[in-house]
Amino acid sequence: MLRTIVTEGDPVLNKVCHPVTKFDEKLWILLDDMQETLAESNGVGLAAPQVGILRRVVLVINSQDEVLELINPTIIKTEGEQEGLEGCLSVPGKWGNVKRPMVVRVRAQDRNGNWFEVEDEELTARCFCHELDHLDGHLFVEHTDRLYTSEELDAMMEEDE
Ligand code: ZN
After folding, report:
1. Distance from the alpha carbon of residue 49 to the mean position of ligand 1, in angstroms
2. Which of 49, 83, 85, 124 is most buried, most CB within 10 Å of its CB?
3. Confidence of residue 159 (pLDDT cuts 50, 70, 90)
4. How far separated are the first and last CA of the chain, in Å rounded?
């Protein structure tokens, strides 16, 4: 079932999410619904608070187009730095430059509660940081000096050509 994505200004996006303790059907329905909602929205990641659920659950689509389900995730290692444009399904129509680590390693549980680790770089590393930020009530707009609209970005691209 598609869930509604809440947008900036909704207090649910500024709250710290609770750990998942029960790996039951309710969690699996949430994960399935989040997958459907993410696919529909053409995003690369989605955190449970974005659909109004204060649980430590995120989805990230990696560069192989696989959907990673990360439950109770923590970042256990980072390397390097990258700066690039970031957007968010909860901040529609706005983008900003954000500095993130180039490589990020995450420890998380799967939908059955089994712990695993996953490491990735570039866009997927950026996505890990962005989505995990959501679990602590943070949005990318806190990490950027200014926000651009799609019209401004189009104009900048044209100047570059
Ligand atoms: Zn986001």
Report:
1. 10
2. 49
3. confident
4. 42
**Ligand 1 centroid to residue 147 C-alpha, Å:** 14
Q: What are phi and psi of 69, to 5 degrees?
A: -100, 115
**Helix, strand, coil in percent for the chain, rounding step 5:** 35, 35, 30
**Residue 77: CB atoms within 10 Å:** 12
Catalytic residue among 8, 119, 121, 131: 131
Distance CA 83, CA 132 (A): 18
Mean pLDDT confidence for 85-96 = 96
Residue 132 CB contacts under 8 Å (≥ 6 apart), including other chains: 47, 58, 73, 74, 75, 106
User: Quick check: helix, strand or coil at residue 100?
Assistant: strand
- Binned at pLDDT 50, 70 and 90, residue 157 comes out as confident
Please say if 117 is a catalytic residue.
Answer: no
CA 108 to centroid of chain Cα atoms: 14
User: Going edge to edge, which strands form the sheet with 67-79?
Assistant: 45-47, 57-61, 67-79, 103-109, 115-121
What's the mean per-residue pLDDT of the chain? 96
